[in-house]
Amino acid sequence: MATETQIRIGVMGCADIARKVSRAIHLAPNATIAAVASRSLEKAKAFATANNYPESTKIHGSYESLLEDPEIDALYVPLPTSLHVEWAIKAAEKGKHILLEKPVAMNVTEFDKIVAACEANGVQIMDGTMWVHNPRTALLKEFLSDSERFGQLKTVQSCFSFAGDEDFLKNDIRVKPGLDGLGALGDAGWYAIRATLLANNFELPKTVTAFPGAVLNEAGVILSCGASLSWEDGRTATIYCSFLANLTMEITAIGTKGTLRVHDFIIPYKETEASFTTSTKAWFNDLVTAWVSPPSEHTVKTELPQEACMVREFARLVGEIKNNGAKPDGYWPSISRKTQLVVDAVKESVDKNYQQISLSGR
């Protein structure tokens, strides 16, 4: 049973990712799964059993029924992107806090409607980008903001690719226009864009231009694309995302004095630790045959998996609102919106034959 301090979370939809987040809710000390809903009672029951839900978990045979449950503080929403705007607004109107899977919406106009509903009803919203909650990420930010070790950021490259099999490329919701219609851009590109924004202290780029050569399926959904981003002061970034290339997830950020590299930024090689490399004022030996100071590796131990850290932080914010009358934290929707804005700009550039898209005033 939930203790007084535990935030009671309802899981809205039995998507594959909900398995991982359900485990995260079990692991987070300040949260518990109080209910699960699917469009069929049987599916919800089977999902609860398969994922070791507590016996006290309520099983709902419809999303509406879950929204009406008075013993739920917050919802985890892993529904297809096209359904986010409808169900997130309904959840906010019922006073339920929302942990929303990414991408947060099909476009920023939809997301703004979700945020308006959250603000009107005093509910917290956070997107399901797990890696930013890994303790490693705080150290990445620390290095990037160090004027001695890193200096000023000049450029950042980030990519996320994985090779979907035939079944994935034919049947997964991420290749279906009516479900997760943003394809590889909304799924994998979201992470690479978030990484470039994080390195740039969440300052939006001035322009976004997709690279020629994006691959779309017959339904017009992006399977692979890349883009360049540029800022007012000359900073640049490139992102690449694909369902058609080997599993790779990289961040390289280069400053005037230092370089940061992360090779497993979205899902660490090991669940119990996460590493990154840094170099500062690197140079060659006299004969230029070797480096004088090769990069150094830093490893962070993780007591809780990053997705459980995410749930813990979400539940902490909800608890502050519920128990102490705090206001929702606007940081999380603001970075979701910026990520979505860049996703939208890349898509617009692809749709407009790789035209440069200006983000001024958005």
UniProtKB/TrEMBL annotation:
Domain Gfo/Idh/MocA-like oxidoreductase N-terminal: 7-126
Segments forming domain GFO/IDH/MocA-like oxidoreductase: 146-261
Highest taxon above the source species: Eukaryota
Pfam families (alphabetical): GFO_IDH_MocA (PF01408), GFO_IDH_MocA_C3 (PF22725)
GO molecular function (one): nucleotide binding
PANTHER family xrefs: GFO_IDH_MOCA-LIKE OXIDOREDUCTASE N-TERMINAL DOMAIN-CONTAINING PROTEIN, PTHR46368
Family: Belongs to the Gfo/Idh/MocA family.
Protein name: Oxidoreductase N-terminal
Species per Swiss-Prot/TrEMBL record: Arabidopsis thaliana x Arabidopsis arenosa
